[in-house]
Design goal:
The protein has three helices and twelve strands; from the N terminus they run βββββαββββββαβα. The protein has 209 residues and is α+β, with helices and mostly antiparallel strands. The strands form two sheets. Strands 1-2-5-4-3-6 form a six-stranded antiparallel beta barrel. It has a six-stranded antiparallel barrel with strand order 7-8-11-10-9-12. It is globular, with a radius of gyration of 18 Å. The model has no long low-confidence stretch (mean pLDDT 91).
């Protein structure tokens, strides 16, 4: 489990591809400072397992499903990534509960700069639209953010987040441009509510029989 508070900006240093998987190496001295084989590290929102490490970084395998659902499908050496170690029991929960199990990707539609912040509008596909609400939580490339606005319909939905200077400087979101894809993870509570509503007719029928 993660909190969405990015600890370090890392960099992909190597990528080895096979037909349906990839092995990536990421530079992140802080992320590996206390990591062990088998530990989880969030890489731009994607939970990956450390299979090898040294003092400068770590290596992880990325399976086909993860490649298909995330921006790691086209990752190349030199890409900067957001890194966060798994939360420890007793840590302050500065963001929100983030699993590192992304729902898919979203495209940046517009960027509006203010005097001390940046508003970013992103696409919202029909599958994810019911899970995103104004003032709700969402993780974008692993960064815990609050949804400032939602709009459009189920087929042409969008949402916005407001980024403060610290977030722009400390994460890769400061480098993102219109047209870029990002990984998104909706709030786990919204996922469970959606599942319960989907099962409600069957549960009601069972309880009445």
């Amino acid at each position: 489990m993660f909190t969405g508070i990015i600890e370090e900006l890392g960099e992909v240093t190597a990528v080895e591809r096979t037909d349906d998987a990839a092995r990536i190496t990421v530079r992140g001295p802080l992320a590996v400072s206390d990591a062990r084989h088998g530990d989880s590290i969030s890489v731009s929102g994607v939970c990956l397992t450390v299979i090898d490490k040294d003092a400068e970084g770590f290596t992880a395998d990325v399976m086909a499903e993860t490649l298909a659902m995330s921006t790691l499908d086209g990752v190349q050496p030199g890409r900067r990534v957001n890194l966060e170690r798994a939360a420890q029991v007793g840590d302050r929960l500065g963001g929100h509960i983030v699993q590192g199990h992304i729902d898919g990707t979203s495209t940046i539609l517009a960027i509006t700069d203010g005097s001390a912040w940046r508003v970013v509008r992103l696409s919202l596909d029909p599958e994810h639209a019911p899970l995103v609400a104004r003032k709700g939580s969402i993780a974008i490339d692993g960064v815990s953010l609050t949804v400032s606005e939602v709009g459009g319909g189920r087929e042409d939905g969008w949402f916005e987040v407001s980024l403060i200077p610290e977030t722009l400087a400390a994460t890769t979101l400061g480098d993102r441009a219109v047209g870029d894809r990002v990984n998104i993870e909706t709030d786990i509570l919204a996922r469970h509510v959606e599942r319960m509503l989907a099962l409600e007719p069957a549960l009601s029928e069972r309880s009445s029989s």
